[in-house]
Please model this.
Amino acid sequence: MDRWRGARRALVLLLAACAAAGAFAAAACGGDDDDEAATPAATATQASSATATPPATPTPAVAAEARPVLPAKVKDKDGQEITVSDVSRIVVLNGDLTEVVYALGLGENVVGVDTSATYPPEAQQKPKIGYQRSLNAEGILSLQPTVIIGSELAGPPAVIEQVKSAGVPVVLFKTVSSLDDVTRKINDVATALGVPNRGKLLAAQTKQEIDEAVALAAKATSKPRVAFLYLRGSTTQVIMGKGSGADVLITAAGAIDAGAEAGVTGSKPLTPEALVAAAPDVILVLTAGLQSVGGVDGLLQIPGVAQTPAGQQKRVVDFDDQYLLGLGPRAGKALMDLVKALHPELGG
Amino acid sequence: MRLEARGIWFRAGRVPLVAGADVRVEPGEFVAVVGANGAGKSTLVRLLAGDLRPGEGEVLLGGRPLAEYRAAELALLRSVLPQQSRIEFSFTVRQVVEMGRSPHRGRGQDPAADARAVEAAMRAADVAELAERAYPGLSGGEQSRVCLARVLAQETPVVLLDEPTAALDIRHQHQVLGVVRGLAMQGRAVLAVLHDLNLAAAYATRVVAMHRGAVAADGPPAEVLRAEVLSRIYEHPVEVVRTGTPERLVVLPRHELPPALPTGTG
Amino acid sequence: MATRAETIARGAGAAWRWRLAALPTLAMLLGAAVLLNLVIGAVRVPPTAVLGVLLDHLGLPGVLEYTQQQEAVVWNIRVPRTLLALVVGAGLATAGCALQGIFRNPLADPGIIGVSSGAALGAVGIIILGIAPLGAWSTPAAAFGGGLALTLMVYVLSRRDGRTEVVTLVLTGVALNAIAGGIIGFALFFATDAQLRNVVFWQLGSVGGATWPNVRPAIVLASCAVLPLLRYGHRLNLLALGEREAYHLGVDTERLRLEVIALAALATAAAVSFAGIISFVGLVVPHMLRLMLGPDHRRLLPASALLGAAAIALADLAARTVVAPAEMPLGVVTALAGGPYFLWLIHRTRRAQGGWG
Model:
């Protein structure tokens, strides 16, 4: 009897401990999320380079149009004209388009986003419809959307067909792969949502910021070799090259994409040989990727990294995923941060 | 219906397991196949059953080469009891015996006749009481009798049995061989591999003695089961005595005990 | 002694009654699963509207009212999705049951003959090459072709002198599965992040991509495999006695093996190519039924088709409603729901029988 009571007391204690640990972990995680959301900008690890502060969502463009002009007509990725007559409930199928919608001042109309929508932070509070490539038709329809916008990556195709068959306009755009396309993307989204003038203003502002960054890059005296490494713990470690999205930014920032120059198209497994061939002066990584290998110290443990010039001088630059690769309204700011991080001589 | 093997050879790789054997079973006969381990008895049964094709020579069933029969035709003419049957799934005894009727399915037969054949077979093999038990849970001897019941239920003119009495107790050995002898008396052609020479002597109408893949002797039990024949094929001294009324053959292998160990102080 | 015999007899009687009632019970379960799938979902559609949509499409328009969106949800999403779930579940479970019979091994599953890894190889190949020669049909077609091709290879490589031995077949399957796995791993090494996500999504399985155009071929292909398979019950029972024994009882075992493997590969390939890899069902549903209904394949095959269909339908119902508006991979649900139940069943059976003997 006594033993039984003792066991029960132990169990209760154990449960309490578990609950406490759980709550603690949850609080800690929540804190992490907030941090990430609040500082999605670049944090250059090198002591001499600039640490960019998070740019606020640009809002002046909103003033260009009091309210959306509807119905709006827009051409999708296949050149088909789609009519949008109501933007009161928008479902956005990917993260960088979500950013554009918010920048256009229509964030309040968003009723659903995909899991890649990390910016702005408010977007994370919206109902999640899953990842853009594994969508669920009825889930999307249950949000009662009046318009759905996404990129050509959205799918599976059958799900897109199912959603269309419910009579909801689905507008899918081509993915953006160059800095020149950024303005097109902003204008496309703005047109689809009936706020073309806001789009023009936002595009112009973004273009200007990109141009400023490019102009600053032109003043740089160095031309560092930059290797963009994509890391997910110890299982996925690849070096990115031509067509990675980051290559256009690296080139525009007045640097050499060491991966592309070493002959990498897309991505290639990260081997000591590949790293030596690339011989980067700077290693560019995504913040989450850097965390997944245990920070800069962990990165230097990856075979081959310590032997590169970048490894020897500990020149590692990390950027938030969506900030660096979003190629949206923040593209100019991201590029500016990258220019400053890659060219310490500019005194950024 | 007659089953006949003419000069059949079968090799496993280069080793001949059956080397030019001639064997014949006529309706009404109970042929016992005897011989030492590895003499080729089981391979002979597999060749006669059609499981294996002889490399040379041929097997004729009712005068027609075995190779010309389809599996379904063959199943109506000959049944086979293999040495041991492992069944993965837990079928009941009745289900297993019923499967013996399967060649007769779809031939316009009265289902009651099937049921009668199953009941008769289970009684003959003394497994009627086990009918609802699961096969995998039975003892080796019980399983062996269930398989025999399945063979009996098949009701074929030719019956091939590979050691039907191996796992059985004395009562069941005699009961089963009595049933088998009864089949021969009904006019079926029966061939059985038997290890126990005394059982062969008691029940078979003819004995085929195999030695190294070939037929060493073939004839009535009294002719084949002689001391010099058996001593030769088993490569062990054997005595044969005649005793009792009516006279019975009794085979007695000689044995020599190893010399007693000297009793030491331990 | 008498009491024990009575107990056994009573137990056998109860078991017998349950076995007789099993097929109607499973059919009712399936019916209920279908009904729930049509009525429940992220979008609220009243049952009367669901009925109205169905009646309309069955040629009785205007009986009950519904909106255009309700029609789209019910007729274009839920009905095809449910049908695909049924086809996939019936196909995988029936194929699994038939293969367990052919290999005389309760642990055989559709993967054993290479069809799953072949299909995976085809699908992963298409995803990573990033080509779509047949448009939206590219991945299903590649998976289907890959599944059948690898099965054919397993069969051809394990054949010698016109005969295939079960052990050779299983070992060849193991070898080719390993090779296929290696090639997939090699290909994944070069995949982009997005391609990896696509592959993972495909491998976890989903019937979410069901539309009328792809449900129709799935139904036709799976029916062409499942319905003929139901007729092999008796021969599979005979095979359970042993390879030789089955032959002695008139079964052409070589032909039986070829036919059943071909049909099972077809059923599995049809399921896998439209829904991705859904583990567990092919192995566990027949096994569960064997524990409940006994080993008679004449009953097991149709029961597997019914329970497999109901299981996938119910699993998909959970997959699409539990985390709505997003959805869980179907394979996750089948494993998480089926696993514990299976453990319980194993435990109970061992306790009741005192072992597998």
In short: The two ends of chain B are 67 Å apart (CA to CA). The longest helix of chain B spans residues 170-185.
